[in-house]
Amino acid sequence: MALVKYNPFKDLRTMQEEMNHLLDLAWNRESGEELNEGIWQPPVDIYENAEAVVIKAEVPDMDQQDIEVRIENNILTLRGERKQNTDVKRENYHRVERYYGTFQRSFTLPQSIDQDKIRASCDRGVLTIILPKTEEIKSKQIKVEVK
Q1: For residues 126 and 59, what is the distance between their CA atoms, to the nearest angstrom?
Q2: Which uninterrupted H or E stretch holds 123?
Q3: Which among 4, 37, 99, 147 would be 20 to 30 A from 25, CA to CA?
């Protein structure tokens, strides 16, 4: 009878390979194709002040024409594509850690947004969308007199 060294990670490795195979089938990808293409979403910060709700999204290395901001049925949708630099050949890269490809993010807007006055601008790789509040919804501060 031969002694076999027990490897506790063998089962985990097998399970990981099976999950990768299932995901390849589900996403219609060729086996072994990189997962980092086409699945990224730009991170966002969303905050509110007395005048508006502000959304800031990181979209570095993107041209303005590659970004679409749309509002439909009270849902704000950011859609776009970050293209990889074609000046450098793929085989010349040592490492690619940034994601490339298309993205889409959707946010449900509160009823208090004045959709006719929404503004969007892009500066230094940050897309800023300002969603002004309607006049009747803006908070009012009432001064309390102390006697």
Answers
A1: 6
A2: strand 119-123
A3: 99
Residue type, 64: Q
Which two three-digit tokens encode residue 36?
A: 């980092």
Distance in angstroms (rounded) separating the CA atoms of residues 139 and 133: 10
CA distance 88 to 138: 51
Q: Which of 48, 67, 71, 47 is nearest to 59 (CA)?
A: 67
Number of Cα atoms under 13 Å in the Cβ half of residue 73: 1
118 C-beta neighbours (distance < 10 Å), count:
17
For residue range 2-36, what is the model confidence (pLDDT) as tens digits?
Answer: 676 777 777 888 888 888 878 777 765 544 444 44
3-state secondary structure of 59: coil
pTM across the whole model:
0.64
